Request: fold
Amino acid sequence: MLTRTVYVVSTDIAWSNLVIAGLSHSFKAYTFFTENTVDNLWNLNNDDIVIYDRSTLGNPSIHLLSPMSRSGGWILANASKQDLEGAQGLISLGWCGILESDFTLELLHKALRMVASGQLWFSREAMSYSLRNIIRGQTHSSCSMEVLGTKFELSHKEQKVFMYLVQGYSNKEIALQLNVSLSTVKTHVSNILSKTGKQSRAQLSSLMME
Reply:
């Protein structure tokens, strides 16, 4: 029987314990660990799975989190409506699944089983948003934010803004997420476009294929 390691990352210990208690009955061969930060989750095995609690840790873009550069299968739990709309950007960054906050505990068993089998878990709504964005000319990613940041000499703040842009956030929404002024965000966006040589924010996702 295949054994796997599953990391449940949340600052809510009660929630983490509830998740593990529920999953351990169905996944008896799996080993579960709790973490309150993603800081130590680097160079994971491909079979490892991470369940990220968005409700307590916030948008992963705040942490410049790019699962593709960390390996393993990552599931965004307790996701928001905005996350669903930015599903394509999350997929491009290496996320394997998104679970809406209202359905996380209900669907986590199925999502974990799918991700463990090498498949993706996204709702029809999330995939619809993603496909519409692809049709509009955006592409999937195969490059980590760390590589892009180095390649185009993006500052730490510019990398954070870039992560939000890829997920489809507006300038106003980015300003609220980062708690900065709208003019500051506009300046960062302008710098990002200038440094990357792109004409519009819609073209930025293509950088992650180059």
